[in-house]
Structures are given as structure tokens and as C-alpha cells.
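Can't paste images in this forum, so I'm doing it all in text. The chain is below; anyone willing to post the predicted C-alpha cells underneath?
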Amino acid sequence: MQRNNIVVLGAGSIGAFVGGSLIAALADVTLVGRAAMRGRIECHGLVMSGARGWEARVPSGMVRFSETPEALCVADLVIVAVKSAATAAAAKQILDLVPRGALIVSFQNGMDNVSQLRSRLPHKVVLGAMVPFNVVQLPDGRLHRGTTGDIVVEDHPRWQPWLPVFRSAHLPLRPCGNFREVQWGKLILNLNNAVNALSGKPLRTQLMDSGYRGVLAAVVDEALDALQVAGIHPAQLGDVAPDRLSALLRLPDDEFAQRGAIMANIDARARSSMWEDLEAGRLTEVEELNGAVVRLARSQGRAAPANERICALVHAAEHGGDRHIDAHSMLDHLALPWPSLHA
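Text version of the structure:
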């Protein structure tokens, strides 16, 4: 008989949103996270919301929450949602505690977390999942999904019993055979995380500024150059192909608002997870995102100076540096001209 005990290891914004949505659909879920999230849930319960008025509420009394990993002992499915820097520690906890036969799934950003987990958990099935949407923690305790899209998962037979569970939670899973290409496609979009975090602005406001879009276009161009040389073809996620993204970003503001389909799916309150990390005084995943572009470029004998400088700015912000950099100053930091906009 298939058991359905789900443990979310790393109940931050994404982990708590996914876990809370599953609990609202009556799945058997335990959240493992920090004391701050426990306090938030005790005060407000779990309140998840999204586009077009969707909302789900779970009273605090229905939420099983642990600040320690012992809950892993009963897991049939482990959703790993910790930050990339904690992947090795998460693997150790899984190795020590998770029953034989449990499915391990990485819901993390970046390119290397799945391979890290597999290397440390050689006797377990470890799969990747790409979460396309953004979740922001709002002051009223709400976890708000500001962007749309289905969760893309690495195709494997072990997903079959879980597909209806996630579908009932309004989190449909889309199995995919070319998952590495999907990861790179998501990473290209995630290159905006650092730009958004450093701007200090909501995502939609930041993306409507041609200066910030010029910065983003530069880091995307470097990523596409390195990927082309490496022979990697990033998957298209959403309405815009990766190789057309830079041209879209360089449109004038009015035309970008009309033709930038990405804008229609971004809630006015949405911000990047990296902005939340800086607000909370935590280290970020910039090395797993922009840093991955730098490493790939170097491996191909190329350079990625804009991504290198973005990494440096984020690291400075992690240690008290500027977290509200205007577009002109950001372009100056990256030694980029004000974008020459074209129709």
C-alpha cells in the first residue's frame, strides 16, 4: 500500500507555500524549518494566495511543524527546499533518518543541488523539480504566489502516485525528459533575482525600468554566450525563448509593457527570494545563479564580467552594503552604458 507521508525540509517561502497547499488539500505533510516560520504559522496559520483570487487557509492547529529533522523518519516523499548552501547538511540528515525507499526531490534553485544530493545519497532515488513561480511573504502572514506556471519535474516512474496529490493542491506537476535544459532555462530567468534584490523594488516596478532591464540583458547575454559555446540549449519557459529575451528587455518601456508577456503574470507585490534573504540578513544563492554563469564561462575560456560584478554587489549587500541601488548606479557598477533602446 502506497503511503503518502510528505516532509518539506526547508519551510521557507517556497517550502511553506508548497507544503501549505498540500495540507489544504488534506495531504499528510510535516514542515521542517526555522523558528521564525513556526512563529508566523502559530500567529496566522498558513494562508496561501495567488493570481486571480485563489486562496487557501490552514489553521495553525492543522500544521505539523518541526525545527529539528526527526520528522524525516516517517517520510515517503522528501521535498528539499533548503538554500543551496545547506544542501550537504540536508543530505546528511536524509541519509541518517529517511526510510529506505523514500523519494527525494529537490525544489531548489541552481544547477548543482540534484547532483550533490545524488552523490551523497547513492542508494536513494533523487529527482529534480523546477518551481517556476515566485512566493513572497506578506506582512499579514500570507504567502503570496506572484507569478504563474506549473512545476516541472524530472521524468521518472516514481512520480506516478504523487501526481494526483499535487494536482489536488493546485500544484500540477509536468514531467520532463530534458530536465538539465529546463534547469538552465530557469537559471536564465533567475538571473533577475540579484538585480531585483539590489534594486530594492517590487519585481514589476524594477522590470518596467529600462535601466534595470539593461543590466539584466547584459547578464543574460553572458549566460547565453557561455551556453552556446558549451553546446547547451536552455529550455523555453513561458512565452519568450531564451535567445529572444535580451531583445525584449531592450525595448522601450511602453513597448516592453505591451509586448513583454512576462509582465502580465507578475503580481505588483512580488519580489525575488534573494531580496527576502537580504532583508532577513541571510546569505544569498547568488553564487548558484550568477556565479554559475561565471563558472561556465570560465570553463569555456570566456569571461562574464557583468555577472561577476553582480555577485560582488550582492556579497557586499550581504555584509551591510547598499541594497537600494538605482538603475544608473547599477549600470555604472557593471561598467555598462545606459541601454540604447530600440523598437
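Residues 210-230 form the longest helix (21 residues). DSSP finds 16 helices and twelve strands in the chain.
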